[in-house]
Amino acid sequence: MTLSIYLSGEIHTDWRDQIIAGADGLNVRFSAPVTDHAASDDCGVAILGAEPDKFWHDRKGAMINAVRTRKGIEEADIVVVRFGEQYKQWNAAFDAGYAAALGKSLIILHPPEHDHPLKEVDAAALAVARTPQQVVQILRYVQDGTLPG
């Protein structure tokens, strides 16, 4: 079986690359939001025209990015949402809620210090991982029943 996996959340570290590399040999297909921060922030005004107010600048970008995000989550078998240490990722929480509402298999990835603020998000997940390697181990087990060795 081919698994379609959407990698949502924090864009400032290489966690996606670690999961993709670790999943080598599995029958999986990955998708993700645009992870170029400047492109993600400015796509709305670059495509639809400048905005004098930063609120509308950001909103245009968020709306265009949502087209890609919704499609990726809707087509995914599994949604992995990463919450990083440094920023409050409201968009990641929204993605997790959207995936949960669609009945998607949800894996949350975050450090232990986020356990309390993310308790409701974690409760909607089928797994809460601490490392990208744990996510890979989950994918490997789901795909072929192999436990870490």
Core attributes:
single chain; 149 residues; alpha/beta; Rossmann fold; five-stranded parallel β-sheet; 6 helices; 49% helix; globular
Can you tell me about this structure?
This protein has a domain of 101 residues: Rossmann fold. It is globular and about 55 Å long. The longest helix is centred in the middle third of the chain and has 22 residues. The chain is an alpha/beta fold and 149 residues long. 28% of the residues are buried. α4 links the parallel β3 and β4. A five-stranded parallel beta sheet has the order 2-1-3-4-5, with helices on both faces. Helix content is 49%, strand content 16%. The protein has six helices and five strands; from the N terminus they run βαβααβαβαβα. The model has no long low-confidence stretch (mean pLDDT 95).
- In percent, how much strand structure appears in the residues? 15-25%
How many distinct beta strands?
A: 5
Helix content: 40-55%
End-to-end CA span: 23 Å
Estimate the global geometry from the Cα principal axes.
globular
CATH uppermost class of the domain at 3-33 and 75-144: Alpha Beta
Radius of gyration: 16 Å
Mean pLDDT: 95
Describe the main β-sheet briefly: 5 strands, parallel
**Number of distinct helices:** 6
Instruction: Using the coordinates shown, work out and report the CATH topology of the domain at 3-33 and 75-144.
Output: Rossmann fold
The H-and-E topology, N to C, reads as EHEHHEHEHEH
Q: Give the low-confidence spans.
A: none
Strand order of the largest sheet: 2-1-3-4-5
Structural classification: alpha/beta
Supply the CATH architecture of the domain at 3-33 and 75-144.
3-Layer(aba) Sandwich
